[in-house]
Design a protein that fits this description.
The protein has 17 helices and twelve strands. Strand 6 and strand 7 (about 205) form a beta hairpin. Helix 1 runs antiparallel to helix 2 (about 45-55) and helix 13 (about 350-360) packs across helix 17 (about 415-430). The chain has three domains: about 5-60, no CATH class; about 75-295, Type I PLP-dependent aspartate aminotransferase-like (Major domain) (Aspartate Aminotransferase, domain 2); about 300-430, Aspartate Aminotransferase, domain 1 (Alpha-Beta Complex). The chain has helices at about 25-35, 45-55, 60, 75-85, 95-105, 130, 150-155, 175-185, 240-250, 285-295, 300-315, 345-350, 350-360, 375-380, 385-390, 395-405, 415-430, and strands at about 90-95, 115-120, 135-140, 160-165, 190-195, 200-205, 205, 215-220, 230-235, 320-325, 340-345, 405. The longest helix has 19 residues, at about 300-315. About 40% of the residues lie in helices and about 10% in strands. The structure holds pyridoxal-5'-phosphate. Pyridoxal-5'-phosphate binds next to helix 5.
Length: about 425
C-alpha cells in the first residue's frame, strides 16, 4: 500500500502489519459481489457466470487485498472527480446527502428556537436535523412552474430569528438562486443548497451546489448516479472550511500529523460563531470507486434524460391541458432527475388525483414523490399546525393536490417511453370526455 494520508496506517515495513487486523475478501466473495451486481438467470447467464468463476478463482493465488477499505485513495479520487466536475475544491464524500446537511447545520450552530426556511415541497431529509433539535421550520411556498422554493415568499417569511435558508433543486431543476443569495447576504443568513437531485445542473452558467454557503448532493440508489446505493458529496464556499469538513466527517480527527502515545488529537470544528463536536459520516473505498466511475458518465446520463424529456414535451404539446417540464435555456440546465408533469385541471376536466389513478390502471407506476412537509405526521407531532401553515402556502396546496406528478425518464426503452406518453394523453382525453 502507498503512503496513506491517515498517519495511523503509515507504519512502514513491519513483520506484523496493521492491515492484518481485519478480514479480507476472497475470490468466492468477489464472485458473490459479481452475482449481486450483475444478476440473471437461465442457461446463458449460468454459462457466463461459470466462465467468470473459472477465471476469478485464480485471483486468490495471485492477488493482494487493498490496504484500506475506508477513507483512502478511492474516496479521495471520487472527491477529486467531483471537484473537477463541479469546479470546486472542497468536495467531501459522506455517507449520504443528509449527513452533508448535518455538517452545514452544525456549522451554523443551530439551536432550539432558531428559524430555518425550507420549501414546502421536499423530502423529509431536508429538514430532519433542524426539526430534531427544536428549531422552528418555516415553510416557503413554491413557484408553481417549477415547484421549487419561491424567493418572494422566502423574503416575506424572513425574521430576525432566521438562521438558514435551504433551497431544494427539486427534480434537478435549479432554484432561482440570485434573489435567495441577495436576501441571505442582506440578513446574514447561511444558505444550504439541497442539491440531492441536481448533480450537474447549471444555474445561469454556474454549477448548482457551488452557489450557496454549503451544498449537499445525494448518490442514493435512485438518484441519477450512485455510489453503491448510498453516498453524498458536501461542498462549501465558507472560507477555510473545506479542510474542516474532512474532519467534520470523521469525529474531528486530524490525520495529517502523528500523535503522541495514541492520545488522539481531536478538536472541535469551528462553527459560524462557536465550535461544534463532529460526528462520523465516513465512506468506504468501494463507494469511492463506485462514485468515480459514475461521475465520469454523468453528462451522458443527463443528455439521455434530456432526450426523453424533450420527447415527452413534444408529445404533450398536442393537448393544452398538459403543462410540460421546464427545460431551462443554454445557461440554466436541469439534471432531469424527474419529469415534472403538470395539468391544468380546468382544461383537463379533472385534477391530478384522477389522472394518477388512470395512469396506475394503465400500468404506469406512480413513483413516490414529494409532498407538503407540513402535512407529515412527524411535523404535526412536533407541534406544528398543518392547516395554519397550509394557509401560507397556497401554491403548494394547489400543485400538490391538483396539478402535478412526477414521471420517470431513465432506463426506459423507446417503447416504454412511447407507452407512457400515450397513457398520459389517452387518460387526459378520457377525463376531457368526462369518462
Ligand atoms: C430532496 C432530497 N433531499 C435530500 C435527500 C437525502 O438524500 P440521502 O438519501 O442521500 O441522504 C433526498 C433523498 O431522496 C431528497 O430527495
Amino acid at each position: 500500500m502507498g503512503k496513506s494520508t491517515d498517519f495511523r496506517y503509515n507504519t512502514g515495513a513491519t513483520r506484523v502489519p496493521w492491515a492484518a487486523v481485519g478480514e479480507n475478501y476472497n475470490a468466492a466473495d468477489l464472485m458473490e459481489i459479481i452475482r449481486f451486481l450483475m444478476q440473471g438467470e437461465g442457461k446463458e447467464y449460468d454459462d457466463a457466470i461459470n466462465a467468470v468463476w473459472e477465471q476469478v478463482k485464480k485471483l486468490d493465488k495471485v492477488s493482494t487485498p487493498p490496504g484500506k477499505l475506508s477513507l483512502a485513495s478511492q474516496v479521495e479520487g471520487a472527491e477529486q472527480a467531483c471537484n473537477e466536475y463541479l469546479g470546486t475544491t472542497t468536495s467531501t464524500f459522506v455517507t449520504n446527502c443528509t449527513a452533508g446537511f448535518e455538517i452545514a447545520y452544525k456549522y451554523a450552530n443551530l439551536k432550539a428556537g432558531d428559524e430555518v426556511i425550507v420549501p414546502a415541497i421536499t423530502f423529509v431529509a431536508t429538514m430532519a436535523y433542524p426539526l430534531a433539535i427544536g428549531c422552528k421550520l418555516v415553510f416557503a411556498d413554491v413557484d408553481p412552474k417549477t415547484i421549487n422554493m419561491d424567493p418572494a415568499d422566502v423574503a416575506r417569511k424572513i425574521t430576525d430569528k432566521t438562521k438558514m435558508i435551504v433551497p431544494v433543486h427539486i427534480g434537478g431543476y435549479p432554484v432561482d438562486m440570485d434573489p435567495i443569495m441577495e436576501l441571505a447576504k442582506k440578513h446574514n443568513i447561511l444558505v444550504l443548497e439541497d442539491a440531492a437531485h441536481a448533480f450537474g445542473a447549471l444555474y445561469k452558467g454556474k454549477k448548482v451546489g457551488t452557489i450557496g454557503d454549503f451544498a449537499s448532493f445525494s448518490f442514493h440508489e435512485v438518484k441519477n448516479i450512485t455510489s453503491f446505493g448510498e453516498g453524498g458529496i458536501v461542498t462549501t464556499n465558507v472560507p477555510n472550511f473545506g479542510p474542516e469538513m474532512k474532519r467534520a466527517r470523521f469525529l474531528g480527527l486530524d490525520f495529517s500529523a502523528p500523535i503522541d502515545k495514541w492520545l488522539y488529537n481531536i478538536t472541535p470544528i469551528p462553527g459560524k460563531e462557536k465550535p461544534f463536536v463532529a460526528s462520523n459520516y465516513s465512506t468506504t473505498e468501494i463507494q469511492g470507486l463506485g462514485l468515480k466511475l459514475q461521475v465520469a458518465r454523468n453528462e451522458q446520463i443527463i443528455a439521455e434524460r434530456r432526450r426523453a424529456a424533450e420527447y415527452l414535451n413534444k408529445r404533450f404539446a398536442e393537448n393544452d391541458a398538459l403543462i410540460p417540464q421546464p427545460l431551462g435555456d443554454d445557461k440554466t440546465v436541469p439534471t432531469l432527475h424527474l419529469y415534472l408533469l403538470q395539468i391544468d385541471p380546468a382544461k383537463a376536466g379533472g385534477d391530478i388525483q384522477t389522472l394518477k389513478k388512470k395512469l396506475a390502471a394503465k400500468g404506469v407506476t406512480e413513483i413516490a414523490h414529494f409532498g407538503p412537509l407540513y402535512r407529515f405526521k412527524v411535523v404535526q407531532d412536533m407541534g406544528y399546525d398543518s392547516d395554519e401553515i397550509a394557509k401560507t402556502c397556497p401554491n403548494c396546496e394547489e400543485v400538490f393536490y391538483k396539478r402535478y406528478t412526477h414521471l420517470p425518464l431513465y432506463g426506459l426503452s423507446d417503447e416504454q417511453l412511447e407507452y407512457m406518453a400515450d397513457a398520459v394523453l389517452e387518460s387526459v382525453a378520457e377525463m376531457q370526455a368526462g369518462k
